[in-house]
Request: fold
Amino acid sequence: MSNSNQGQPQPQRPPVQTTAHLRAKKRGGGCWVWFACGCLVVILATGLLGAGGFIAYKSGAISLDTILNLAGLGPADIEFDNFRDETIFIYIKQLDVPSDELPAEDWLEIEPFDIRSYPVLEPGRYLLNFGLSSEGSDLGTCTLTVRSDDQYQFVALPERIAVNRLNDPPTIGTDLIVGTSSLCR
Reply:
């Protein structure tokens, strides 16, 4: 018997692919890998930011007041300059306080040609009375709205008291005088 198909190549069957073979090809992790990498990047960035902030705080590059001012909770400064020939008295009272708290109140006595700085720890509205005695406001009154990181300067001159917001100076001359200033309303 002769086989007529002996010299001819036999047709090959395609390899059978099993599900295990298909799963092996589909490697990569999909969304979970991207999610894990994203979380890792966020954690590393937070750690680096925290370490950088700690180093900046310890070196004195930033202070607690700077951090509080960024949040709008930091202190403000008011400077009083007495260029008069007599002592002036300044009464300071916090106005907008919750009903369960007492307002902050203070008296300053400033000698002739003396300069005094007063830190305002809480932003808000304050009443300032300027007088020649501790009982009066005969030199002027100012209701001042103080924001975090504001810097005010009051200068007692022989004729009047001038006011200036150092970090945002007024552009109109009447805003420089306590009696007519838009800062004192």
